[in-house]
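Hi W., the zinc ion complex you wanted:
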Amino acid sequence: MSTRKLIRNGVLVTASDTFEADILIEKGKITQIGIGLVPDERTEIVDAAGGYVIPGGIDPHTHLDMPFGGTVTADDFATGTTAAAFGGTTTIIDFCLTQKGRPLIESLQEWHAKAEGKAAIDYGFHLMIGEMNDQVLEELPQIIDEEGVSSFKVFMAYKNQFQADDGILFQTLQKAKEYGALVMVHAENGDVIDLLVRQALAEGRTEPIHHALTRPSMLEGEATGRAARLAALADSQLYVVHVTCAEAVEQIARMREMGYRIWGETCPQYLTLDQSIMDQPDFEGAKYVWSPPLREAAHQDVLWNALKSGQLQTIGSDHCSFNFKGQKDLGKDDFSKIPNGGPVIEDRLSILYSEGVVKGRITLNQWVDLCSTRVSKLFGLFPQKGTLAVGTDADIVIFDPSVNRVISADTHHMNVDYSAFEGMQVQGCPVTVLCRGEYVIRDRQYAGTAGSGQYVKRNKYDAGAPIPMKQPVTALNGGRS
Ligand code: URP
Ligand code: ZN
Ligand code: ZN
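Structure:
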């Protein structure tokens, strides 16, 4: 294991630039970027010929080792982060669930215990806010300042489970503004969905497709618009997770045009799969039960255009894997009991490259921005992570754009018995992945160590306030106004 590595012959791609250069890595950091860098005898040469050299992917949305829907996600921090690394991701931000009446810090400690000694790449946590009271209010500053958790998740759906009311959401937004955090929402109208689900079941509509039909896109648009307006009223910042449809994009775009700090994420599944896949026989549709659900195909163009135009800013995997046999089948006779979620952590970068860059829907630099840089900036990791620059962590992926492959459960590394993208042809593959300068994947083989991933404390949300001048402007112009 060499602490000095020189990556040569690759094409560097950042969120803004594409250029040929070498990268020198020392003690886990990038220490030089330049043309024709000369190694000494202690330096290992890493040949990136023919490849793109990009900052490691940062996945802002994962659920590992998480109890949900009467079971626990199939991937834990060992299998999930290993699969993430195969897919070119070097940092994840996982959702820490909380429970009413339980100190937030205890939930965080529980999530630390799940990850420690297991993670193969770096990780941070978002924290769910399900209630607002004196205890929560007292803990929030410590959670942000000392624990490095600067994003909170509020669920507007999953009634009687995670759902919070508008008052809780609004107060979370107010506190996030005050303390410097980003509020994330699962935006669907949980009350109306709950009613539609009960009505469908009462009428004997139990198959997986009814999961989608009882969660119409209008209810995602409504909740997105409501959350965005509450954020505007609180003069706060909002990040809408897993945006799936035109109605939600429209709300985000409208509020952004008015100058509000509203951000949106979508996921590979909503860009490439549509609702018709849920209407297959033999319960096959259960494999594709996500909330919000897959939409009709027409929404995909809207999502791609929103990524291209900047109306949506990030790609999360929303990795929440359940086996088809033994987990998804909990809902064999009742779609509302199918655990919601699917396996995506390994395929995020590849699908975005193949379906996005290769098909001309986004540029190479947008790909890096969506999958890494913008995530880093929004979630307080920049400039430590998310770009290629002197002084940053050497989280680096060599991505070979010439590899053609087929996504399949037979070859993936996620701990789950099916692939949501089975049979999809993709062009391009991460071949070598470094986390803080150490191999996690080397020539498409695992070379990492469970437990080498480190917890990353994140900075506060940066609302982009003007940097105070060192001296007042009046002093600069001699006091003349
Ligand atoms: O179906 C999904 N998205 N499962 C994960 C939990 C969530 O809502 O993000
Ligand atoms: Zn969600
Ligand atoms: Zn999720």
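The first strand starts at residue 4 and ends at 8.

W.
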